[in-house]
């Protein structure tokens, strides 16, 4: 199970997540988000995570910047991945991929109920709730129980939206994702990460979904 902790601004929290075996850390650069990080904070998060876990993935998360501009920013700051939320089209993704090869497409079945397998040109699909970063739970059960939906989604997708230490095991058992992503569920207040909740989330997700980067590196 691949684990991503998103919305980090404090390098100490990035180091903590990396030390506990998170496979990825995410930084949101979106001015209206309570998790918005500036360039200095973003660079510090990347450095802190890599100091603990050199192979960790670092993702820049955006929803308002033009795709090519976002990819250029991600490359300039040294991110591995660009995660695009919002109404970006195929041309936007192609533009971004020319600048940074690893692009993740975040979407929601609320806005795209007919999600097609042909939409999977990007490295990863991240299936989120209706409002990114809101912490709102959504019904993930059809992801595991609807074969047609599952076929459309394909493999290697990441479940997000409303996950927490308390519900991640149940969500994983229903949806059977390749990976999980959390932000609000490991916070004590919007934009304020809670190290204890990060630790509990990683432990609960590992118990439910199996090992990730640490075990892979050792094998
Ligand atoms: O987190 C935000 O504030 C945010 C703002 C704008 C675009 C995306 C944003 N977050 C995206 C994420 O990757 C979140 O981790 C994902 O939506 C899950 O959020 P949550 O329900 O808070 O766990």
TrEMBL record:
Protein name, as recorded: N-(5'-phosphoribosyl)anthranilate isomerase
Pfam families, alphabetized: PRAI
EC number(s) given by UniProt: 5.3.1.24
Pathway(s): Amino-acid biosynthesis; L-tryptophan biosynthesis; L-tryptophan from chorismate: step 3/5
Gene3D superfamilies the record matches: Aldolase class I
InterPro entries per record: Aldolase_TIM (IPR013785), PRAI_dom (IPR001240), RibuloseP-bd_barrel (IPR011060), TrpF_fam (IPR044643)
Similarity comment: Belongs to the TrpF family.
SUPFAM superfamilies per UniProt: Ribulose-phoshate binding barrel
Organism from which the protein derives: Leucobacter allii
GO MF annotations in UniProt: isomerase activity
Catalytic reaction list: N-(5-phospho-beta-D-ribosyl)anthranilate = 1-(2-carboxyphenylamino)-1-deoxy-D-ribulose 5-phosphate
Domain N-(5'phosphoribosyl) anthranilate isomerase (PRAI): 3-203
Keyword annotations of the record: Amino-acid biosynthesis, Aromatic amino acid biosynthesis, Isomerase, Tryptophan biosynthesis
């Amino acid at each position: 199970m691949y684990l991503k902790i998103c919305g980090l601004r404090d390098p100490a929290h990035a180091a903590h997540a990396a030390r506990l075996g998170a496979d990825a850390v995410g930084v949101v650069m979106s001015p209206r988000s309570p998790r918005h990080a500036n360039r200095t904070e973003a660079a510090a998060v990347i450095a802190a995570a890599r100091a603990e876990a050199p192979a960790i993935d670092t993702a820049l998360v955006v929803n308002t910047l033009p795709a090519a501009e976002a990819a250029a920013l991600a490359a300039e700051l040294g991110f591995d991945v660009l995660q695009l939320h919002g109404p970006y089209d195929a041309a936007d993704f192609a533009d971004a991929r020319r600048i940074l090869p690893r692009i993740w497409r975040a979407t929601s079945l609320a806005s795209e109920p007919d999600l097609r397998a042909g939409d999977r040109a990007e490295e990863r699909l991240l299936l989120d709730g209706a409002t990114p970063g809101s912490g709102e739970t959504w019904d993930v059960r059809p992801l595991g129980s609807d074969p047609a939906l599952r076929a459309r989604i394909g493999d290697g997708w990441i479940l997000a939206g409303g996950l927490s230490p308390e519900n991640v095991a149940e969500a994983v058992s229903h949806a059977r994702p390749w990976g999980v992503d959390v932000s609000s569920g490991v916070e004590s207040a919007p934009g304020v990460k809670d190290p204890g909740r990060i630790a509990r989330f990683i432990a609960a997700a590992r118990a439910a979904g199996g090992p990730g980067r640490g075990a892979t590196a050792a094998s």
